[in-house]
Amino acid sequence: MRTPADRAARHAFRSRRVWPGLIAALLLTAAAAITAVEVISAWAGHPAHIVAYGRVRDWADDTAWKDWQALAAASGLTLLGLLFLGAGLLPGRSRLVPLHGDDPDLLMGVTRRGLKDAVAAAAGDAPGVSGVRRVRLRPRRVKVVAVTPVRDSADLDERVGAAVGDRLGRLRPLPDRSVSVRLKHREV
């Protein structure tokens, strides 16, 4: 069940996509400034000609919409616009994983690396595990690849999963994650 504290933590730690926004803002500001200078100087009777729009106008007069140059230019600008739109609308990957809390005024989070290290330590401490090869964090799942010298590991994956689940239960990351464990056999 999501509480107001959970929603506040998820919102506070959401990725902001600063670089795409900054690049888009700079490009739009430069285009607006050049347009303003061109229009104002043309009204004053002395066009600035910062952009050689005469060549662009001549090219546009001589080029049909079906020509490959016009289609390529339109496709490139459309792709650039969709890229900026996608970067603005789609959430990025946050640097912090929010932790469940009961107070909306107290927000807690852990780095992705810190959560991976905590999961790896819990899996490595399970009896019968000699090491952890990899931990992958997914939005709703944690995947652990553990190394064991035990040949017959009938319920070892369940014990490792329980140890990792217990650690995740104490940390309480948002959203809740299920655990999947894969064991690799290695002689000691």
Characterization of this structure:
This protein is of the alpha+beta class and 188 residues long. It folds into 2 domains: 4-89, no CATH class; 97-185, Cation efflux protein, cytoplasmic domain (Alpha-Beta Plaits). Helix content is 51%, strand content 15%. The strands form 2 sheets. It has a 3-stranded mixed sheet, covered by helices on one side. Strand 3 and strand 4 form a beta hairpin. Helix 5 (112-124) packs across helix 6. It starts with a helix and ends with a strand.
Structure characteristics:
alpha+beta; Alpha-Beta Plaits; 6 helices; 5 strands; 15% strand
Helix/strand layout:
Layout lengths: L3 H9 L5 H26 L9 H10 L5 H22 L6 E3 L10 E3 H13 L6 E7 L3 E8 L7 H16 L6 E8 L3
Parallel strand pairs: 4-5
Antiparallel strand pairs: 1-2, 3-4
Helix pairs in contact: 5-6
Q: What is the architecture of the largest domain at the second tier of CATH?
A: 2-Layer Sandwich
- The count of β-strands is 5
Stretches with pLDDT under 50, minimum 5 residues: none
Quaternary state reads single chain
How many helices? The count is 6
Gyration radius over CA: 28 Å
Top CATH class of the largest domain:
Alpha Beta
Whole-number tally of structural domains: 2
Structural class: alpha+beta
CATH topology of the largest domain: Alpha-Beta Plaits
* Major sheet: arrangement of strands: 3-4-5
